[in-house]
Every structure is written in C-alpha cells, then in structure tokens.
Amino acid sequence: MKKVIEIIECRTADELLDALHPTRGTWPENSGGWLYRGHGDSRWELLPSAFRASSWRNGFTIPEVDAASRDDVAFWEQMLLYRFYGAMDRAGLQIPRGDELIRLMPTRFGSDSPWPDPVLEPLMALAQHVGIPTRLLDWTRKRRVAAYFAAIDALENKSKSLDVWALSQHFIELFGDQPEDLTCHIVRPLRHGNPNLHAQGGVFTLCRGDVRDEAGKFYPLDVFMTVLARGLSVPDDLLPCLRRFRLPTSEARALLLDLHNDETDAVALFPGYVGVVRSLREDHWIGPLLGGQWPQNPGYSVKATDRTKKVSKRAAARKPSKRARR
User: How confident is the model over 5-33, as a mean pLDDT?
Assistant: First the structure.
C-alpha cells in the first residue's frame, strides 16, 4: 500500500500555489475533490480545538481541561454547547435545527449515548466557527483560502515554516465509516446565517472512535487516517489521501500579496466591519511590498498635523541653494 500522507516541500510562494493547483500539481488520480486547511506553524497538529488544552483557557468559567488526556472532554463539550444553546435562545438568535433541539435537548445532553449525536452537528458547527471548543476540525473547499490563513498565522506567530494540508473527500466518503467503531465523516452545515462560513467555503471533519496512545493523548487526524487505512484494502490510486505542502515563513509575505492581488483577503473572507479592520492589519505585512512607506520607528506617535509643522519649520530654516539664490 502506498503512503497515506505525502509531504511536498515548496521553496517559493509561486511554487506552493502551483503545487496546490489541481491541474498543475502532481495530484493522485481518481482522488475526487479535496478539502484544505492552513497551519501557520508546521509544528501544529491536526487536532480539533476540544483536544487542545489551550482552547479551554479562554474564560468559559469551567474547570481547566487537560484536553490531551482527560476522559471527561466530552462532558465539558456537552456542558459548554448546552450553555451556548441557552445563551443563543435568550438573545433571540436563530438556532440551527432549533425546532428539533427544543424537543430533543434533554435526551441529547448528559446521556450515555455516543457523542456527539448527529442532530447536534449543525449547532456544533456554528459553535466551532465562533470560538467554542468542539471536536470538529475546520477545513475549506478553497485552496487559496487555506493558503491565506497559513500565511497570516505564520507572520503573526513568527514560525519557521507553514503548512497547507489537503484531504481527499473521496477517500472519506468511501472509507470513512469502515470499521464502524472508527469513523470520520465530513460535516457540511448550511451557510445561511453564517456569512464567514459562506465566504470561506467552510466545512468540518468529525472523527468518532477512541484513538489514543498509551498515555491517553488523542491522535491528530493524520495519525487517525493512517490507523483507519491500515486495516483496509485501499486502491493505490486513492492514495495518498492526505497531502502536506510546506513553505518557509520567509515566503509568507509574498504569498499573502499574491492572494491579496487575487482578492483572497480579509475583506473577502470576513464580510462586514471585522473584515475591514483585519484588512488594515494585513497592510502591516504587505504594505512595503506594495510600495507603502512606513516610519523608521514603529512607535512614533506624533500627530500628522504636528509632524507637518515640524517638517515645515525645518524646511524654512534651511539656507536656499546657490541655484535658488540666483
């Protein structure tokens, strides 16, 4: 069996974008469509937010969860999602599949049934997209969107290299439910009412099954997929089902500029005022490449009017040149 994961090293931003293009790169035959995910640091794992301890330190007024090993992660997921549901209702906001949930909610939380129940997936998708820790892992249908998030996160985190992951939808659809105790499927929530999800082409993967090491640590998706494929007869033309494109962070500015020129930027991906503000922050990274002029001292805070007056005084104090005196 061929390798489940392929790593592609790219030296330049152009090389990365060419490699990601379905008609230019060396993509497996019969692999179907692909989903993409950008990581600003190659050291980051393909772990959902609920399985990262850092996600539980954002003031949710619950005990800190060691998401890497604790067995009660599912319990705290349920409690936080239930609170999210209640807060949305009090705020008068539309709740995904709200008519069903209001009848089923007592039986879907705190029970011994497998977590999560499929009826809760649309609510979980919305929660994940607004910052609630869940076991859903974000992906996008758009390769350039994934490249954008990888570039901006790499610059903000000052990493050494970034990754853009690609996951075969065809592989998930064919083998994601085999065997039954170890499954992975794609969650495609409705885009109505979630403009960011719509603009970013967002989807999610959800893995079920207790795949952990001896210490109880959850395996990331790439390890999960390797375990999943190990006992299956997967045709070689469907492998690799995961591709990992790596780029030095020194090329992140050039990548961000290329994407900006194609209108893959904050304004497009975050419709509304938030996107406008984020785009102004992007100028910090790509402004110099566009010919923008920045102050020598980033901390210089003199008002424009005062600065203009100082410049004018210095200009007036200069002696005229010989040519001017003539």
Answer: 86
